[in-house]
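Whether sequence alone determines local backbone shape is best considered at the level of individual chains. In the encoding step, the backbone of a single protein was reduced to a row of integers, each denoting a local shape. For completeness, the protein is quoted in full, as a sequence line and a line of structure tokens.
***
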Amino acid sequence: MSVDEFPGPLFTDLYELTMAAGYFDRRLDETATFSLFVREHPRRGYFVACGLQAVVDALIRFRFSDREIEWLAQAELFKRDFLAYLATLRFTGDVRAMAEGEIFFADEPVLEVSAPLIEAQILETFLINTVGVASMLATKAARCVHAAAGRPIADFSLRRTQGIHAGMTVARSSYIAGFASTSNVLAGKIWGIPTSGTMAHSFVTAFESETEAFEAYAELFPKAAVFLIDTYDTIAGAEKAAAVGKGMKQKGQALMGVRLDSGDMVALSRKVRRILDEAGLPEVKIFASSGFDEYELARLIAEGARIDAFGVGTRMGVSADAPYLDTVYKMVRMGTRNVCKTSEGKVTLAGEKQVFRKMADGQFKGDILGLREESRDDAVPLLSMVMENGRSVGPRPTLEEIRQRFAHNFKRLDDKTKDLTNPQKYLVALSERLVELQNQC
């Protein structure tokens, strides 16, 4: 199976299938609508919508193979008529969703599925996993981009993400959120994301001296040479890198940069900057990597580190401070009946919905959560049809267009809501008609 291939409808929790069997047995086949949303999160003032293209691609290909039906039959859990039904099952419903790269907030549906009940139910696990993880990672990456204050960031997380699919999702999600590049070569091939990388300490230690290692790398990559200078002593490494850089300059070449990977980044970056400038190499950039996340990036910049670009790895790639989003997929309508959940602390709102965004002076000024059939003159609707009767509709944006959409939207979000430690709560109000519907539920 390739990394971007839908694993099939067995990528689900067992209870989705047992519930589907129950619906089938009782002939519950009316159209149901489910809303996918994220509950309130204490460390996140906003979320970045991501993963929609993977959802659409998967639903187009949704079907149980003969081998999957045979495997289910061997479990002796399901009746033969239900298995025969699954063998013919395709997704025939509608999907309304926010565009990838859109910014959304707690309790707002980022996606709604309206489909025959069994189809809509079986999708729950896949949708939560796909949209929830991608949005979690895009949100984490967006926070890093904000903290870097315009300095480029590269995704260096691949070796420590939780598996192949996670590594690919990080590369795509972080690029959408504004990362400049990724170390993930396969992501570069599949999606055209710019790739970047330097060298590891093993490269330096494979040679008799740092100077020999730097010269070898410069000879092989004269247009993309970045030297890792902290293998032994960072200051001595910087001086050797500067000497090799001066030699490259005399040949008409240009050392791209040096990389710091340990130590006091603020003090070392200042000293390295001075060494490079005094060697006549002011154009050489200082890159840094070392367990960074948005909090560390903000600290380094606030304390005056002379770092031009960052490599951000593990903590972003696993969203270390918030390694999951409380993403849920709840039924809000069954046939002609609006339904809700009233459990303490986990109330859900009944009815098919639309999210309206109010704008003023080019800035987000608050959202209104209303009913799907509502229209407003004072706000823009965010949920649009992306699948109708099981088929993809509308234009398919490129990755660059999604990335540009995010950048455009992020500029419109107030900095107080972007705050890393104490974000201001964004205003999401309920429309009068939605409130009235809840009172009837």
Summary: The CA atoms of residues 115 and 259 lie 52 Å apart. Residues 14-124+330-410 form a domain with the nicotinate phosphoribosyltransferase fold (CATH 3.20.140.10).
